[in-house]
């Protein structure tokens, strides 16, 4: 306030001075201005009425960001009206549409009362509710007692605030190309996968595709393109569920997974608060060279990317994936790793009084979209009986096949969570004269030991009798296209441990599977990493990974050791050694980051077969994510790879190309009102708006409060953001839409005069064609004007409405002196401009 008192009122009254006036006003209910303190020629020609009352907002419609308690909700058009009992005060009219976004409890909603013929909420009908508008921050601040609101959690909103997004189309893709030149000749491959989709209201229509082209010396070319899946998805928040119609893979923790065509209605754990959601699968492995990693399930590609040499962990798979996954690691030296991963599930636990369920019906189908099998119906449930106990089970029935399951889960509090279940099946298959009847027993355990910095993500054991048959095994037996491969025993566990005193982390994963009809398979991996200081070197790290894969007659054992030394500001030098299949490799590498969107790595080393060199470059572009790699080994091979991953989103509000990682996933279309090159930061990093002022932020978490912001430090000089942060909670697969309030154009001190060359009222505001405030009139019409665009028509506003308009010159770059503009009666400026 002291800074305000020091303002020299003999100088031009700027926006800062007016801000001080509004600050004084906020300390009193009503303020009478003594204009004698202002050294102005025309003290009667003032428009300071807006500052006469505390928090007074001129009646009218304003676009404001709505804040509820400590949370920021959505941008909304809010009408302010004059209070009936006090014409000198204004009130925010909270419309029914806005109130529906607040997340009020059902009982509170029943007791709401309205005024102005049902268009405005009576605040007193919500005990303790308050509303305050602030044009300075373009915000509407609402305060509502917590006991009147639905349950919320950090970064999670109740269903009433979820946004289904806008209608639009999308095309997402991942393309991988590789060429290798060996003594035996050259081979080329081009693979791709992606999703084509269309959104309409809450419906998401999707088509998944994948393609492959291979060409090798002396062999004919192979080409393949296939639509792997067609389906429609929509969320049903009132049931906490999702409905899928079309081709799908049964997502069942009791009865396995198989492909079918039909309908599925299931509780969606993603709709729950984050601390109540389920387990997402994680894939870990080691790449000996630059490698392509493909994760698929029953032939459908789920994930396709390139990774540099060393250990890798893929943690961004869709947590709706369940069942057995096939992992294919294709090295640039020609070697291949293939192994299977059984996605685990944490024990069945459900909140007391709640029921989670899955219902599905249809017919099994094959890769060619042909129905192949009997009609089936399945249902499973998990019921929170009491605090700590859950009962779960279900059944699956089809012609010649049936199975029933029943289990119990227990929250052991400080000892973790445990579940035990048994499944009984009966199947009649062509290869057997009598029906096969058997049982399968399972026990699952999960626990985080906070006091020991340890976590058992999942540990489980399953035993199946020889005559037990899952639905997937039954389908394969009916087709008779391959021998039965029935499961017998399965052990699986994932454990992590932090030794904070030693800065040591340990991660262990083990999976053992035996079969009644074939050889067992084993896979384990152990990773350890430690940070330490040596002399003047800080934050050195050493990591070691050992793994073993064994399946049928194939076996792959290996170990990887790496020592990393920070070098310079963002770079690092590392030494790595690996051993696998009787061969060893020693490599020196240099890694650096050019900026937050560009990273590269250069390596040189020696193997048992000769010297090697490789490079790896990654670019997070606005239009796509690009990865380029190359490898060379003396006398053996030369190989290069390129990966491009991105997408296109097209809506009625605009379109943009963008990078992408989750095919057909949730995204947010950002609009900067035609201003290009605005830096926008979201979950996936930094991107920029295109020439039309549009950008798409991908990797948006469904049913999760996502924040997107403008990077103010990187804004171009002639761009100003009056609103820099937006939030959105989007449903699965939605195309959200949010608009930033951005002003672009030159900034300069100008003089604005009326048609009779008198000065406009002191304190009047200049607005551009989009209604954005661009300046405040000072003494004798002197105004600091922003957002100046050649030939644009702006208006002057006082008394609550536009009074006149003025036109900017068609050439602004050549101005050498202070510009003088005439504000003509409304409509005359348009004629003058034409």
CA-CA gap between termini: 48 Å
Strand segment tally:
54
| Main sheet record | 24 strands, antiparallel, barrel
Number of helices, where a helix is a run of at least 4 consecutive DSSP H or I residues: 6
Percent of residues in helices comes to: under 10%
3D shape: globular
The secondary structure category is: mainly beta
Describe the protein in words.
There is one protein chain. The chain has 834 residues and is mainly β. The strands form nine sheets. The chain has a 24-stranded antiparallel barrel. The longest helix is centred in the first third of the chain and has 12 residues, at 15-26. The two termini are 48 Å apart. Residues 749-807 form the PapC-like C-terminal domain.
SSE blueprint:
Layout: H1 2-5, H2 15-26, E1 60-68, E2 71-82, E3 90-93, H3 96-99, H4 106-110, E4 114-115, E5 120-121, E6 130-134, E7 139-143, E8 168-182, E9 185-200, E10 203-216, E11 222-236, E12 241-249, E13 259-267, E14 283-287, E15 291-297, E16 300-307, E17 310-314, E18 324-331, E19 336-342, E20 355-364, E21 376-386, E22 389-398, E23 401-411, E24 417-427, E25 436-449, E26 454-464, H5 471-479, E27 487-499, E28 504-515, E29 521-534, E30 537-551, E31 554-567, E32 571-580, E33 583-595, E34 598-607, E35 610-620, E36 624-633, E37 637-651, E38 654-659, E39 667-671, E40 679-682, E41 685-688, E42 694-697, E43 705-710, E44 719-721, E45 725-729, E46 735-739, E47 742-744, E48 746-754, E49 765-767, E50 773-776, E51 782-788, E52 793-798, E53 801-807, E54 819-825, H6 828-833
Parallel strand pairs: 1-7, 39-46, 48-54
Antiparallel strand pairs: 1-2, 2-3, 4-5, 6-7, 8-9, 8-37, 9-10, 10-11, 11-12, 12-13, 13-20, 14-17, 15-16, 15-18, 18-19, 20-21, 21-22, 22-23, 23-24, 24-25, 25-26, 26-27, 27-28, 28-29, 29-30, 30-31, 31-32, 32-33, 33-34, 34-35, 35-36, 36-37, 37-38, 39-42, 40-41, 40-43, 43-45, 44-47, 48-51, 49-50, ...
């Amino acid at each position: 306030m002291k800074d305000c008192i020091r303002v020299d009122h003999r100088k031009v009254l700027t926006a800062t001075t007016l801000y001080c006036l509004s600050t004084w006003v906020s300390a009193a209910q009503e303020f009478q201005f003594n204009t004698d303190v202002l050294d102005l020629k025309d003290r009667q020609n003032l428009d300071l009425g807006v500052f006469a009352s505390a928090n007074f907002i001129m009646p009218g419609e304003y676009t404001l960001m709505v804040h509820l308690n400590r949370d920021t909700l959505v941008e909304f058009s809010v009408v302010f009206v004059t209070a009936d009992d006090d014409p000198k005060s204004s009130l925010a009219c909270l419309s029914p549409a806005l109130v529906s976004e607040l997340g009020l409890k059902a009982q509170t909603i029943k007791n709401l009362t309205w005024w102005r013929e049902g268009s405005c909420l009576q605040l007193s009908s919500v005990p303790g509710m308050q509303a305050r508008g602030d044009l300075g921050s373009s915000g509407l601040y609402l305060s509502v007692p917590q006991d009147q609101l639905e349950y919320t959690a950090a970064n999670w909103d109740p269903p009433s605030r979820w946004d289904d997004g806008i209608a639009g189309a999308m095309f997402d893709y991942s393309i991988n190309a590789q060429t290798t030149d060996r003594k035996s000749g050259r081979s080329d491959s081009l693979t791709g996968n992606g999703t084509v989709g269309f959104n309409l209201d809450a419906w998401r229509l999707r088509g998944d595709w994948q393609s492959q082209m291979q060409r090798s010396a002396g062999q004919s070319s192979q080409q393949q393109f296939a639509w792997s899946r067609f389906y429609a998805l929509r969320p049903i928040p009132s049931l906490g569920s999702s409905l899928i119609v079309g081709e799908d893979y049964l997502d069942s923790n009791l009865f396995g997974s198989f492909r079918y065509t039909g309908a599925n209605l299931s509780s969606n754990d993603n709709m729950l608060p984050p601390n109540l959601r389920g387990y997402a699968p994680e894939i870990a492995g080691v790449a000996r060279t630059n490698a392509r990693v493909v994760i698929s399930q029953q032939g459908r590609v789920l994930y396709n990317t390139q990774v540099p040499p060393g250990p890798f962990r893929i943690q961004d798979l869709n947590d709706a994936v369940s069942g057995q996954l096939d992992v294919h690691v294709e090295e640039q030296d020609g070697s291949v790793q293939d192994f299977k991963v059984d996605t685990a599930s944490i024990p069945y636990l459900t909140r007391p009084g709640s029921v989670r369920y899955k219902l599905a019906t249809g017919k099994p189908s094959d890769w060619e979209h042909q129905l192949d099998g009997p009609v089936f119906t399945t249902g499973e449930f998990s019921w929170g009986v009491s605090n700590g106990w859950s009962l779960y089970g279900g059944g699956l029935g089809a012609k010649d096949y049936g199975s029933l399951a029943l289990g119990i889960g227990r929250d052991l509090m400080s000892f973790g969570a445990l579940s035990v279940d048994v499944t009984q099946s009966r199947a009649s298959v062509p290869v057997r004269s009598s029906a096969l009847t058997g049982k399968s027993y399972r026990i699952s355990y999960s626990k985080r030991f906070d006091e020991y910095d340890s976590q058992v993500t999942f540990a489980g054991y399953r035993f199946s009798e020889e005559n037990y048959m899952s639905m997937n095994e039954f389908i394969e037996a009916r087709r008779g296209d391959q021998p039965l491969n029935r499961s017998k025993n399965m052990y699986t566990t994932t454990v992590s441990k932090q030794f904070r005193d030693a800065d040591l982390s340990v991660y262990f994963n083990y999976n053992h599977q035996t079969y009644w009809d074939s050889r067992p398979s084993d896979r384990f991996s152990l990773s350890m990493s430690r940070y330490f200081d040596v002399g003047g070197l800080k934050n050195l790290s050493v990591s070691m990974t050992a793994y073993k894969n064994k399946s049928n007659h194939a076996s792959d054992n290996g170990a990887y050791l790496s020592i990393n030394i920070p070098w310079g500001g963002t770079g690092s030098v590392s030494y790595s050694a690996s051993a696998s299949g009787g061969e060893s490799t020693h490599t020196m590498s240099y890694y650096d980051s050019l900026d937050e969107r560009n990273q590269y790595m250069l390596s040189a080393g020696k193997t048992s077969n000769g010297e090697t060199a490789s490079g790896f470059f990654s670019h997070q572009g606005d239009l796509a994510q690009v990865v380029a790699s190359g490898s060379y080994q003396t006398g053996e091979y030369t190989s290069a790879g390129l990966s491009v991953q991105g997408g296109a989103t097209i809506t009625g509000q605009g379109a943009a190309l963008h990078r992408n990682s989750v095919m057909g996933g949730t995204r947010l279309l950002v609009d900067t009102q035609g201003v290009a090159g605005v830096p926008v930061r979201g979950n996936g990093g930094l991107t920029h708006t295109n020439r039309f002022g549009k950008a798409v932020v991908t990797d948006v978490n469904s049913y999760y409060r996502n924040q997107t912001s403008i990077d103010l430090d990187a804004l171009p000089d002639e761009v100003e953001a009056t609103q820099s942060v937006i939030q959105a909670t989007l449903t699965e697969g939605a195309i959200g839409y949010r608009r930033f309030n951005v002003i672009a154009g030159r900034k300069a001190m100008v003089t604005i005069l009326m048609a009779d060359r008198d000065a406009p009222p002191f304190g009047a505001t200049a607005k551009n064609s989009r209604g954005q405030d661009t300046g405040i009139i000072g003494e004798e019409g002197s105004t600091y004007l922003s957002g100046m665009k050649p030939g644009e028509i702006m208006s002057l506003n006082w008394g609550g409405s536009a009074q006149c308009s003025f036109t900017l010159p068609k050439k602004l770059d050549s101005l050498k002196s202070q510009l003088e503009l005439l504000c003509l009666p409304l409509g005359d400026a348009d004629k003058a401009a034409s």
